[in-house]
Amino acid sequence: MSAVRKHPDAFAFQVMLGLCLIWGCQQVLIKTAAVDIAPVMQAALRNGIAAVLVGLMLCWRGGWSQLGSTWRAGVLAGGLFGLEFLFIAEGLKLTSAAHMSVFLYTAPVFTALGLHFRLPSERLRLLQWLGILLAFGGIGMAFAGGMSFEQMDGRTLLGDAFGVIAGLAWGATTVVVRCSRLSEAPATLTLFYQLAVGFAGLLLIALLSGQIGAVVLTPLAVGSVLFQGVVVSFISYLTWFWLLRKYLASNLAVFSFITPLFGVTFGVVLLDEPLSMNFVIGALMVLLGVILVSAEPWVKQQLRRLVG
């Protein structure tokens, strides 16, 4: 019998706030440390560090028994996971951390679309279709006016597009997990596949592109990689999986959308990144659309309370 999940309480809210704060600073960390270590190398090393830690946890607690029946789906999910971080890394060379934070979080929209066509139980409802239209409308507005006309150029638009592609890869990863034997595998094994395969693929790309030799081990570079590998990719991800076992996923999803708001704030405050009103409006449309798609039961519940 599956465990009964409850509505988030004050403790869950505090933990989610901490997780969103951690996730929101990722893009800023990568961009800040890029002068000493290429973003692709940062992504490869963070995945490698976290893969070792998750692998040790699997050895300690068990979980390797399903390796033989899940490795094909695991390799596919890991490849998509690596592709996500490749586009994040390359996109951050072209666009701002604030833009990347918003466009990356289009992932739930792509997940919902993929599951709609793969699983009959995941058919989209009217409110969710409205959310998808709102999210894509927001993307269009952000693309059209993310910066002033004088500042906008092809590099920024390409970087923004890479952010959307990264969100698409993230969404596709979730679809693969949900629609394969990974859905019944331990979360640690699924996470290990993503980290290990992502590490191998990104390290190979860094090697072939000559980025592996352009590493300067400054305190900033080492600190950034260690924080991303240990805190973000290991501790925060396992904490998220633990929360999903205790609390309702739709309610947690609402809290998780604070992440891009933190990302935008950090980009503006720490990196002095410019924002235009068009981008702000577009970003809010994207976030509202994603909430309608991912937390549709929660939104309906709140609407009933307002009407009642």
Give a quick account of the main beta sheet: strands, pairing sense, barrel closure: none
Distance between the termini: 34 Å
Assembly of the depicted chains: single chain
- Helix count equals 14
What is the arithmetic mean of pLDDT? Answer: 87
Would you write up a description of this structure?
With 308 residues, the chain is mostly helical. It has one domain. Helices cover 77% and strands 0% of the residues. It is built from 14 helices and no strands. It has helices at residues 10-24, 26-33, 39-61, 67-91, 97-104, 107-118, 126-145, 154-178, 187-208, 219-246, 249-256, 259-271, 277-294, 296-307. Helix 2 (26-33) runs parallel beside helix 12 (259-271), helix 4 (67-91) runs antiparallel to helix 8 (154-178) and helix 6 (107-118) packs across helix 8 (154-178). The two termini are 34 Å apart. The mean pLDDT is 87.
